[in-house]
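Quiz preparation item.
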């Protein structure tokens, strides 16, 4: 396993290079750039400014190839550059906003697993019952409906009917836990139900497939209780596909709630990324995408290692 881990870690380097190159190229292909926005802003403020000077100040006056390798060299030195529009470095901005995105992601992930795994086991135990059909209908519904539409309805109708709206001013969990949770609870639930639909169906399918195995029939023949069959025999052997889906959700903790962060005005990395895209803030976009990608790659490695713990038959050779 040690050789496998070392090989996967070494593969992160070319993968990060490819991710950086793709993001850099795509950003340069977008129409307009930050220089135009800065020039217009300064002229509206009554200041005389030359576009070439601004371009030189931002380092955009050199060929794109030089820009890329200069930026990537900074990445290798753990320097993601400075934001064009915020008076701070990209690393500091991400450091401030990463815990906020992680908090929302963790709430969604925990709630999704608390909902999906028990209900998936229940649906497998009660296959083709009325409760099974109802839960599967809800799962497909929440998988299919766009989350931004549900989030908009949740914001609009409670405010119209009952005068309720989630907190829109961010408070740290340690500074004001009540206001913090009042801001994160609703988007956390909405993020959870979308994940829970997929995980419920996968859990149900894999547990049903495991329950058809010979050793499960042998356990029933020996008089083992259904609860013990489900949890001690079927569930663990059905966990690898479930862990894969859950792992994908964990990988999306940092940037998977971009829509919810923007709808509910949560100042996380997702909201910062959308704002930076609008302003063509190249260093901030590239830094956010790089951190999201790196987080996903590390989580995928951890999930792959979990396969060995769940099923000793798995080999990395």
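Solution:
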């Amino acid at each position: 396993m040690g050789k496998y881990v070392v090989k996967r870690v070494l593969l992160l380097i070319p993968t990060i290079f490819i991710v950086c190159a793709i993001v850099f190229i795509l950003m340069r292909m977008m129409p307009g750039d930050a220089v135009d926005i800065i020039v217009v802003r300064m002229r509206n403020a009554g200041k005389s400014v030359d576009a070439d000077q601004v371009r030189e100040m931002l380092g955009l006056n050199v060929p794109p190839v030089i820009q890329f390798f200069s930026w990537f060299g900074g990445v290798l030195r753990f320097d993601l550059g400075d934001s064009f529009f915020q008076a701070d470095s990209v690393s500091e901005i991400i450091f401030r906003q990463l815990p906020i995105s992680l908090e929302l992601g963790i709430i969604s992930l925990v709630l999704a697993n608390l909902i999906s795994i028990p209900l998936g086991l229940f649906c497998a135990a009660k296959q083709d019952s009325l409760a099974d059909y109802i839960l599967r209908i809800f799962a497909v519904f929440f998988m299919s409906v766009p989350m931004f539409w549900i989030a908009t309805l949740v914001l609009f109708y409670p405010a119209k009917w009952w005068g309720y709206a989630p907190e829109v001013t961010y408070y740290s969990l340690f500074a004001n836990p009540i206001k913090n949770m009042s801001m994160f609870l609703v988007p956390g639930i909405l993020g959870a139900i979308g994940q829970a639909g997929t995980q419920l169906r996968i859990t149900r399918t894999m547990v049903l497939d495991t329950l058809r195995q010979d050793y499960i029939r042998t356990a029933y023949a020996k008089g083992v209780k259904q609860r013990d069959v489900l949890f001690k025999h079927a569930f663990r052997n059905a966990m690898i596909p479930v862990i894969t889906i859950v792992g994908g959700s964990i990988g999306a903790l940092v940037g998977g709630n971009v829509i919810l962060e923007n709808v509910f005005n949560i100042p996380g990395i997702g909201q910062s990324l959308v704002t930076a895209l609008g302003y063509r803030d190249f260093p901030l976009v590239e830094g956010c995408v790089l951190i999201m990608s790196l987080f996903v790659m590390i989580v995928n490695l951890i999930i792959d290692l979990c396969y060995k713990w769940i099923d000793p038959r798995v080999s990395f050779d």
